[in-house]
Design brief:
Blueprint (H helix, E strand, L loop, with lengths): L1 E6 L2 E3 L4 H7 L12 E10 L7 E3 L1 H11 L3 E4 L10 E15 L5 E12 L5 H8 L6 E12 L16 E2 L2 E2 L2 E14 L8 E3 L11 H6 L2 H35 L5 H8 L4 H18 L1 H18 L3
Parallel strand pairs: 4-11, 5-11
Antiparallel strand pairs: 1-8, 1-12, 2-3, 3-7, 5-6, 6-7, 8-11, 9-10
Helix pairs in contact: 5-6, 5-7, 7-8
């Protein structure tokens, strides 16, 4: 599962000797403090976000190791031309006085990044110092997304994120990070402090089908699901047509186009109830015709399976 976590503000940071030691692990030449601009940034935290998801503390700690050395870009555009800075160290910061919506102590992943003091970066440095460039978002992958209520994989149980069950809030806990892709300056964060923008695939605009198609082990299952989805769409379309037909037969005053628009918004349970109700109404108005039509339909169905 690929996720993006949007976070809070950047913070100026004066490079010290220890910082330069970390930075020079990534440079080809030995850099001095005068050659680099350093700043700190909050990458992501363990608070339940607006999409009712969160990282647990163990996941944040693992992400700290994964993000060391990762490049910063703009708006998640994966281009070498957009590389702006690089993370050289991270730290898990705890705020003991603060409690998350999940009921545990608040903590966040803080990272220190550097960029070169060049003419090209002058405007970016000015924007960071002026508070213009401050929101960031991270792109990473996690192995598990767990329901907070039952502990099953989120989306496979009956619990809905954002709902409360027995006084317990349902949210998805993101666990076991497997990779960190990049971190990015963004214009609008999805959350107050650690927002989230989900993505499926290696690119933000990649469709689900393209994402699955890139993984051989998923292709066969994807094809089966696609065929089943097509059958389901055809079934619902036929059910909606039948409900509209019965409704118009039972009540000539109905506007067919308007009623079709209503039916298009309904799902199977509501459609079946309407079908049953209109069949009963039509039976009262045209009892003989309806029974004859049903017999003809049943006979046709029998012919289809006769060998």
């Amino acid at each position: 599962m690929d996720v993006r976590k949007d976070a809070g503000t950047t913070e100026q940071w004066a490079a010290e000797e220890n910082d330069m030691s970390c930075i020079n692990r990534f440079s080809k030449k030995t850099l001095t403090a005068d050659e680099v601009y350093t700043f700190a940034v909050r990458l992501c935290d363990n608070e339940v976000d607006r999409d009712f998801e969160r990282f647990d503390e163990t996941a944040l700690s693992a992400l700290g190791d994964l993000f060391v050395g990762k490049s910063g870009v703009f708006d998640h555009q994966w281009s070498a031309l957009g590389q702006t800075a690089r993370i050289y160290r991270t730290e898990l910061v705890r705020e003991a006085e603060r409690v998350t919506a999940a009921g545990d102590g608040y903590c966040y992943l803080k990272a220190w990044a550097y960029l070169m003091r060049t003419k090209k970066n002058a405007d970016l440095i000015a924007d960071i110092e002026g508070g213009i460039k401050k929101e960031v978002s991270v792109g990473c992958a996690v192995a598990r997304s767990v329901c907070s209520v039952c502990g099953e994989e989120s989306g496979t149980c009956q619990h809905q994120k954002g709902q409360t069950y027995g006084g317990k809030l349902c949210y998805a806990e993101l666990r076991e990070p497997t990779d960190a892709y990049e971190w990015s300056f963004v214009a609008v964060p999805a959350q107050r402090e650690a927002g989230v923008l989900k993505r499926f695939g290696q690119k933000a605009d990649a469709g689900l089908e393209q994402y699955v198609g890139q993984r051989k082990e998923f292709r066969e299952a994807w094809n089966v699901l696609r065929k089943q989805a097509e059958l389901g769409r055809n079934y619902l379309a036929g059910l909606r047509r039948e409900v509209v037909r019965l409704a118009l037969v039972s009540d000539e005053t109905l506007d067919g186009e308007v009623f079709q628009g209503i039916a298009d918004k309904l799902e199977e349970p509501e459609l079946l109830e309407l079908k049953k109700a209109y069949e009963a109404r039509v039976e009262k108005v045209f009892p003989v015709q309806l029974r004859r039509a049903n017999r003809e339909t049943e006979s046709a169905d029998e012919e289809m399976f006769r060998v």
